[in-house]
Amino acid sequence: MLQCRSGPLVDIGSGDGRIVIAAAKEGFTAVGYELNPWLVWYSRYRAWREGVQASARFYISDLWKVTFSQYSNVVIFGVPQMMAQLEEKLELELQGDARVIACRFPFPHWTPAQVTGEGIDTVWAYDARSFRAGGGRP
């Protein structure tokens, strides 16, 4: 869902770093924010082991304390309880050319540009130009 795209990528709640590392291997400058310090340290080790430490960075941080305006590609594997609040935060912060990829749980008010997979493997892609132009929240 990020083919033919460029620009910096962020994985919000990057866990073990697999998305950031895969993105770095595809040529993205990729950053992961994760609250769990053990997972961040493990991710940094994995990026080093995979040879992408120069283009894959990981930070210990609470997603609510980070500004995402500098990213044009956003990946989130959230939980239903946070998606509405995160939707509002991203609407305020992202530029018009941004694309947001939501894994497993969709955003409640946005209309996806693309959907793939099914069940727990469903992934939604949202383009900022649609939700920033009134295509989002009622």
CATH topology: Rossmann fold
Largest sheet: 7 strands, mixed
CATH secondary-structure class = Alpha Beta
Give the averaged pLDDT, no decimals. 92
| CATH H-level homologous superfamily name | Vaccinia Virus protein VP39
The count of β-strands is: 7
Q: Outline the low-pLDDT stretches.
A: none
How many helices? Answer: 4
Please outline what is shown here.
The protein is an alpha/beta fold and 138 residues long.
Molecular structure report:
With 138 residues, this protein is an alpha/beta fold. It has one domain: Vaccinia Virus protein VP39 (Rossmann fold), CATH 3.40.50. Helices cover 32% and strands 22% of the residues. A seven-stranded mixed beta sheet has the order 3-2-1-4-5-7-6. The longest helix is centred in the first third of the chain and has 14 residues. It is globular. The model has no long low-confidence stretch (mean pLDDT 92).
